[in-house]
Amino acid sequence: MNTIKLTNSKTRQKEFFTPINSCNVRMYVCGPTVYDRAHIGNARPVVVFDVLYRLLRYVYGSRHVSYVRNITDIDDKIIDRAVQAGIEIDELTSKTLNWFHEDMAALGVDYRNDPQFFEPRATEYISEMLAMIEELIKRRHAYVAKQHVLFSVESFQDYGSLSGRSTEDMIAGARVEVAPFKQNSMDFVLWKPSNNDQPGWESPWGRGRPGWHIECSAMSHALLGETFDIHGGGSDLIFPHHENEIAQSRCFCPKGDFARYWLHNEMLQVDGKKMAKSVGNFFTVRDLLNQSVPGEVIRFVLLSTHYRKPMNWTKKKADEAMMTLRKWRNLTSGIKEGRPPENVVNALADDLNTSRAVAELHRLAAVQDGPSLKAGAMLLGLLHDNLGHWYAPKSNDIDEILVERIEFWINQRNLAKIEKNYARADAIRHKLSAVGVAVLDTVDGVKWAINPAHENSGKWELLE
Prior knowledge:
- By secondary structure, the protein is α/β, with parallel strands linked by helices.
- The chain is built from 15 helices and 16 strands.
- The protein has a five-stranded parallel β-sheet with strand order 5-4-3-10-11, sandwiched between helices. A four-stranded antiparallel β-sheet has the order 6-7-8-9. A three-stranded mixed β-sheet has the order 13-12-14.
- β3 (25-29), α1 and β4 (65-69) form a beta-alpha-beta unit.
- The longest helix is centred in the C-terminal third of the chain and has 23 residues, at 396-418.
- The N and C termini lie far apart (58 Å).
């Protein structure tokens, strides 16, 4: 059995992973708040923890690993968006969840037929949340004020241990309203009142709805128990969300450890800058798919950087990924899946080092080891048939004519660059791009690849 090592955010060290029960390995990952399309940054943890799930299933057996990824379907953002759109909340959340499933399936993350995967919706666990809140009040870890129920941070002496932040830093980073009825500015909401225009449920403290943090604690406890193996999510959730989860869960179950290993992926940038609508570099997964960037290409780019490092999305990386995947699919066409090579498995077992695993796949491709390449790639969720719709092997009948035509324009572009006629060089690149030919300038020369999924691919008359 392969030994897995993971960087535990709780201890800030790389540790050997030892499950509580090797026949019942349990993982919980914070899922989406369903009010809008998933952006490319949202996709990173989905893909990262999908690879971890694949690794755990490979090592411990598919029947012995359970994966819970929740859906937040009650939240102030959801309420506000439904009002803006003039639709019911259920309609908004159902539509958005369907979008999420479609977009993630395009990236190779599809658990529709997996009995070991669970996707609880927050609104299905209100009774569990109420029971947890009542117990926290009973244990004097929470109090009622102005129809709100708040967790008393001072009642949990280990508060802040996950993030390692000082009280001053936590207050500055919490970004919460310091309500006058709070006993401590750091206290957070477990339950809040709802007016007649807002969704709500009856409770001992009046009609209302849960706070965000209590949702994950209640769902993970109901499905995985008071102590489970791995809790994951983006690094932006460490504080306050995961810090608050730990506090309320351990106070509810003082004999439990809640989650033993905490994994957090770093954030994603676009062209070296933080993704933001105000900067103009914000885009969703669906935006990329609609621009004929295959889901497999998106997945490849996301896995090319170690999950604990910031990831920079660029068009150049997407073009390189498409060329690489086309080469790998050509090399492995018709080959059946086998056992993943040890070097790939060992790379993933070493703190989910996907970048090292990808480097090993490049080496296997270089030595023309198709069977090992395919098996290793499939462990990363690549080269599966359901992701290959974008790829079409070149027909020998048109290969020579088409390649000759493309190479002609590549040469014309090279000449234009030599003559410093950069406007013509750019025009030729756009001409090729218009029919789905990606051009990439590298230290080894110009490389190109055809994307059959491009809406104008095949209109080769445009290259006359």
